[in-house]
Amino acid sequence: MSNAIIIYDTRSGNTKLLAEKIMKRLEDLEVSVEIYRDKEFKSIDSIKDFGIIGLGSPTHAGQMARTFKKFLKKLTN
Ligand SMILES: Cc1cc2nc3c(=O)[nH]c(=O)nc-3n(C[C@H](O)[C@H](O)[C@H](O)COP(=O)(O)O)c2cc1C
């Protein structure tokens, strides 16, 4: 089947927990999943190789975390 990548930011662990639950669900569906904390994910070009891309951030002041916004900027440049 398809392959997936999940990249998340977290401060107190909730987003990590959700990312891991999504990973397990996808694996149950026989999707191969790679999971990274945003600051650990360095090979941005490789993101194109994944059929499913999951991105997760905590909400800070009504928006995604500033650190995750920075990460997304790198991803889209
Ligand atoms: C500095 C800060 C600002 C936050 N602002 C919001 C907010 O505007 N709206 C909201 O619903 N939750 C807000 N939260 C709560 C977090 O989004 C929520 O606890 C989230 O589950 C934390 O995710 P994490 O455990 O992955 O860091 C805020 C938390 C922090 C620490």
Fill in the keyword field for this structure:
single chain, 77 residues, alpha/beta, Rossmann fold, three-stranded parallel β-sheet, two-stranded antiparallel sheet, 5 strands, 27% strand, binds flavin mononucleotide
Strand content: 25-35%
**Bound ligand species:** flavin mononucleotide
Helix content: 25-40%
Quickly give the structural class. alpha/beta
Write the CATH homologous superfamily: Flavodoxin domain
Mean pLDDT: 94
> Low-confidence runs (pLDDT<50, min 5 residues)?
none
Amino- and carboxy-terminal Cα gap: 29 Å
Q: Give the CA-based shape.
A: globular
Counting H and I runs of at least 4 residues, what is the number of helices? Answer: 2
Number of domains: 1
The major pleated sheet works out as: 3 strands, parallel
CATH architecture: 3-Layer(aba) Sandwich
Instruction: Let me know the number of strands.
Output: 5
CATH topology (level 3) name = Rossmann fold
- The Cα radius of gyration reads 12 Å
Listing every helix as H and every strand as E from the N terminus to the C terminus, the arrangement reads EHEEEEH
**Strands in their spatial order, largest beta sheet:** 2-1-3
CATH class: Alpha Beta
